[in-house]
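User: Predict the structure for this protein chain, please.
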Amino acid sequence: FPVTILQYCGNFAYQLSKQELQHHWDVVLSEPIDILISHDPPHGILDATPSGYHVGSVPTSAAVPLHIFGHAHSSYGIYHTTDTLFVNASLVNERRQCVNAPVVVYK
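Assistant: Here is the predicted structure, written as structure tokens:
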């Protein structure tokens, strides 16, 4: 299930206020999802900027087996909980230089 909506942070497309974004996630996550692909990471999971600010906006209560995202370029990597495999697949760094390898996920 791909999601292109993100939390408002400047003059970019597909942005919502925090209240609108929460409603959006309430609707999207009301049905079972096997794979969630979003621009934003979940808050507090692979979402830190170099200054330590957390930019995630997806609810951490989203129980999906696989969640793939980017946005926080400096937090590239994989994190696993009991229920979910989180993948920050950002290929570029903060300067938009391609420095990370593509992530391959298989079962």
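The radius of gyration is 13 Å.
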